[in-house]
Amino acid sequence: MNPGLVIGPLLHPTLNETSKCFLTLISQGKYSNATPGGNFIYVDVRDVANAHILAFENSLANGRYCVVAQVLNCSQVLQILRQLYPTANFPI
């Protein structure tokens, strides 16, 4: 499975790579995990888990599978974050 940035509930108290990516974007205005052009590829962690189960249960499954729910540009991500956190001071 080849997921994009995995978002959703965390199972552990430490930050995962996606959370670190968002934190860097919010605090420093950098987006190192984006594709060229500043696009982010997102998928929910529950969809990734379901994709693994479906591939495991299907004997014909082989090769690589891209698991993507949505692609957003950096400016779209910041717009969503600004709507969710209107009092936050984003660097960009």
From TrEMBL:
Keyword set includes Transport: no
Keyword terms, alphabetized: NADP, Oxidoreductase
Entry protein name: Phenylacetaldehyde reductase-like
InterPro entries per record: NAD(P)-bd_dom_sf (IPR036291), NAD(P)_dehydrat-like (IPR050425)
GO molecular function: oxidoreductase activity
